[in-house]
């Protein structure tokens, strides 16, 4: 902020900003994401896939949906979190039932 002086404008209260306070550019973020994965010797995976994995893991760990929604920026009571990540519960339910040798429909 010191370098940009009066030109700095973070009108959206962003945590990470470009030099003048605006949002970071997509290319900038992707470049740093790729660099971070390389530094950790991890294979490339799209950022959104990692976000999906994180939210799915939260569901598997039993984190209440309202807390997950707050963390990832979904509106409270939004169906987005529920619809996209409920497959986790269906998969887990199927596995549990199969462990008890209960026939599970595949549809």
UniProtKB/TrEMBL annotation:
Protein name in the entry: Tyr recombinase domain-containing protein
Tyr recombinase domain span: 1-98
SUPFAM superfamilies referenced in this protein's UniProt entry, alphabetically: DNA breaking-rejoining enzymes
Pfam families attached to this UniProt entry: Phage_integrase
This protein's UniProt keywords: DNA recombination
Organism: Clostridium zeae
InterPro entries, per the entry: DNA_brk_join_enz (IPR011010), Integrase-like_cat_sf (IPR013762), Integrase_catalytic (IPR002104)
PROSITE patterns in alphabetical order: TYR_RECOMBINASE
Coiled coil: none
Entry keyword Hydrolase: no
Record bears the keyword Lyase: no
């Amino acid at each position: 902020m010191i370098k940009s002086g009066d030109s700095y404008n973070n009108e959206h209260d962003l945590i990470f900003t470009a030099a003048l306070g605006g949002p970071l550019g997509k290319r900038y973020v992707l470049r740093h994401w790729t660099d971070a994965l390389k530094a950790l010797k991890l294979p490339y995976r799209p950022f959104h896939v990692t976000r999906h994995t994180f939210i799915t893991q939260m569901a598997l760990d039993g984190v209440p949906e309202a807390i997950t929604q707050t963390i990832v920026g979904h509106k409270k009571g939004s169906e987005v979190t529920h619809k996209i990540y409920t497959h986790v519960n269906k998969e887990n339910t199927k596995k549990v039932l199969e462990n008890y040798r209960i026939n599970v429909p595949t549809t």
